[in-house]
Amino acid sequence: MLAYDREHVWHPYTSMTEPTPVRLVESARGVRLRLAGYGEVIDGMSSWWAAIHGYAVPELDHAAHSQLESMSHVMFGGLTHEPAITLARKLIEITPEPLDKVFLADSGSVSVEIALKMALQFQRGSGRPERKRFLALRGGYHGDTFHPMSVTDPDGGMHSMWRGLLPEHVFADAPPAPGDDIDGWAAGVRALAEHHAHELAGIIVEPLLQGAGGMWPYDAACLTVLREIADELGLVLIFDEIATGFGRTGHLFVSELVTPDILCVGKALTGGYLTMAAVLTTGRIAQGVSDSESGVLMHGPTFMANPLACAIATASIDLLASRGWETDVARVHNALGGLEKVRSTPGVADVRVLGAVGVVQLDHPVDVVAATEAALGKGVWLRPFRDLIYTMPPYVCTTDEVEQIVAAIEAAVAVG
């Protein structure tokens, strides 16, 4: 099977002709993956930050089986169904009050596409069709489809090779690190936004933590600055909480601290069971979109509001609340504090912990193959990238399991 995979199956961010090794997953249960040749290992990645409850979760399994008894999918154009309505109600209940319109989409990147489209149509409906660009932040990452790539860091990001083909937007400096003075940064962002205000439709940002662009945390005061600038200049403020939503930073949503005009959520939305995302917005934005020349939001995915995904997402949200996610995330956070012991290790540039996120940044690119094998030797699955060896474990990990992840990161650092 692995030989066939190597010859024919293209994996993410991997060469088809010279692929890096992959491991065969035989099963997954709790916080562990069973890998052929390795046995059971702790998943330190939550399957790219989505499987917050772990695997084979009884409540989510039950939701899936129950929904399959009525329907797995039905088109959403001209039809609706109870799972979508229930999920929309849940999302509205757990997000800030002005966000009461819900568009259910396929994936995180697609939700960003929709959010950008909403902002553009809002400006058209508001009589400002010339506003076609966005203000984004360096160090940011918003997805791999074309318009999300265009608002991702144009130089240090993963999509710099597409310069000249993608729309060109306006990029402000990355936010300062937590505790650093933000006045100079704020003045620079404000001046840049004011200079381009006549052509800007909105601002897009990953709140509190820039994820795949480098795992950079920053203070919520920076979000307040962006909210003020958006209000002053008539811009639509978009929060991409695909990575940060559902408790990962220690807040259920960072939008509780500063409320955006549009909110994108995904990844953990279904507890890692199925691909799904949602875009929430306000009545004001919805009215502006409706006032544009089309009169409708020009988007309609085939699998929008998939009933099976909706049912599982609702069960995941209920489980998050009933388990007491704050206690879980705090436990993980405290145990990730053990990463501090590698700060003085040669080759380590920085150690960062925010909520249930732990990051070790090296002063050189990671040897991904060697670091991955070292972590597996300690019984943990990690997926380093660029100069980062990091973890976003399932919230249900015990203290002992997080300490094992910390030991695996230490081993990966030693060879990475």
UniProtKB/TrEMBL annotation:
Keywords: Aminotransferase, Biotin biosynthesis, Cytoplasm, Pyridoxal phosphate, S-adenosyl-L-methionine, Transferase. It catalyses: (8S)-8-amino-7-oxononanoate + S-adenosyl-L-methionine = S-adenosyl-4-methylsulfanyl-2-oxobutanoate + (7R,8S)-7,8-diammoniononanoate. Belongs to the class-III pyridoxal-phosphate-dependent aminotransferase family. BioA subfamily. This is Adenosylmethionine-8-amino-7-oxononanoate aminotransferase. Gene3D superfamilies: Aspartate Aminotransferase, domain 1, Type I PLP-dependent aspartate aminotransferase-like (Major domain). PANTHER family: ADENOSYLMETHIONINE-8-AMINO-7-OXONONANOATE AMINOTRANSFERASE (PTHR42684:SF17). The gene is bioA. It comes from Nocardioides baekrokdamisoli. It is found in: Cytoplasm. Transmembrane segments: none annotated.
